[in-house]
Amino acid sequence: MKKTAFLIAVLMILTLLVSCSAGNNEEVFEQSLGATDNADWTGHDFYILQTSVIDEHPLYYLRDTNLADNALTRVKNVADSHNCTINLKYIGADTTFKTLLAATLATGDSLADIIFTDPAQIREFGNLGGLLDMEYVSDYINIYDESKWGAPNVWEFLMCKGKMCGVVPVSWMNMGPAIFYPMVFNSDITGMFGYYDLRELYEQGEWTREKMMEVAVDCTDKTRATPIYGLAACLKHFIRSALLNNGTTFAEFNDDVSEYHCGWTSEAGIEALTWVKDVIANYDEYMFKFTDTGYGDWNYTNQFMNNEAAMLLTSSGEIFDKIAYKVNNFGLLPFPSGPYGDATKYVGFYEKAETLSIPVYAKEIECSAILIDEIWSPLEEYPDAESIARYYETNVFSDERDYQILMEMSKNCKYSFWPDGGDAVLNSLYSNLSNMSPVEVLESYGTSSDKCIIEQMIPSIFTVRRLSGDETYK
Length: 474
What we know:
2 domains, 5-stranded mixed sheet, alpha/beta, D-Maltodextrin-Binding Protein, domain 2
């Protein structure tokens, strides 16, 4: 059923415009360092706060790898150029991070000059008013440079109450496309069962939902000491992939975003969910812990690397951080489309991307912006799209087709709004689809998705439209 969101959206947008205007009037910062002249910052210490263990992942790269070495060298060179000190600072994620950052809003303490973290943290802290609107420092960070800071489909999770509260350093390896869920297959395992290159099925137009399940059956062998399953996939991510690749999205809007409905309840949504229910009923034995909701809702990368599964649906970040180091002969495929989908368009969802933000209490706002722009400029070894492609084709993939799928899929991904309520309906499907019909699950959930759509998605769409100039974005 369609919902009329126009009046609500208008009232919200007017409120946001007023609050943004008031916020901008308050954002007046002292600049004792002469940042606008790129002056000598002798004796000043700057802190980059990140939510990962620095000893293992400096700037989110695995220590003692070429990428980590290049990134740390860049930090040192930028510090030397300004005659200052730049320090990496670790803080625990989740509760610790949120508690400490929220406390700084009351105390005004400068916990860090730059925050480098993921969208769940960014959105929560940004909605509290703790992060700078990046438009304020657009003289130093060109947020419209998509090759450096991301395209509009990456902007959505950066929007906090009408403000763009961060940027994604997409020109750095593993940070641009490292945000979605492709299919991965182990050619050594599939080859044992006669499927030497699954990419050929896609190229020949034969990579369908039915073919994927056929391959899962054929590549299962539970007679071995370590059983091999045809496919390892978290049921929740499998459901979302099936929905998106059947031509629907979580929230579907008319052109002026005055009406919306939850796409999962559409004809395409019900068809996709009915197909997933059939997979649960008929193929569970060929899939690693597919319906074990107590096992967790993350992924099965370790099982895939241990040769316990021929195919895997996982976060692309797991490919860069783990699979590329452990599996010699793997390849990529998109999740196959359903009858309402477009078989020529790879569609996915993303949940996170490492994000750079400036806290409103940073000591020198413009200096922070300058440091972000200079540190996260393209690394010298990988200055352009061609060199980045060579990196992936040489260091991550063994076949250039995998990189092509990676980049095309990245362009078509949409943010899932999972911490804002986007996962709530999905969690209900995840828990109940085995014993209830799709319609029953969706009806039992009711209109609870409205809050996420109205309070988060609609303001994000209007902000992206304003920044990008694309009045058709939705």
